[in-house]
Specification:
Elements (H helix, E strand, L loop, with lengths): L2 H13 L10 H32 L14 H18 L2 H8 L7 H15 L3 H24 L2
Length: 150
Amino acid sequence: MSVLGFMRQGFHCAFLYTSCPPVRSVAQYGGMFWRWLFFLLFIALGVAAGLIYGWVINPAQYTDASPALLKEDYRTDYVLMVAETFSSGQDLSVAIDRLEYLESPDPAQAVLEAVDFAERVGYHPDDLLQMRSLLSALQAGSQGGAGASP
């Protein structure tokens, strides 16, 4: 607002008794500053207290959690990690041991379910290839093992 406009407004407010906007003093702005400062300070203290309680005083404790408790998408990721390990080392017994943590009666069935889910969701073709190679190795191992027994 220009000086002339301010003077005109002051003239109207003082002499013509028209309504004028309230004039705030520096002290009133200072009070608002302290309100905002205390508000933000207490928000920060609340966040800090929540983090300290959740991370130090009473953190979450997981006991005896196994991959069998995972949701289907995380189980599929677990099978993918086992398939990646299998593709790097080609050790089927290690892959079977790791798949037993899923507590499925047949490790090949667990891998087949993971492949089906991965196809539905749209996993990368390289990941699907690794899981399928693990599945074929498991099926070949189970067929070979079944044929070798008397």
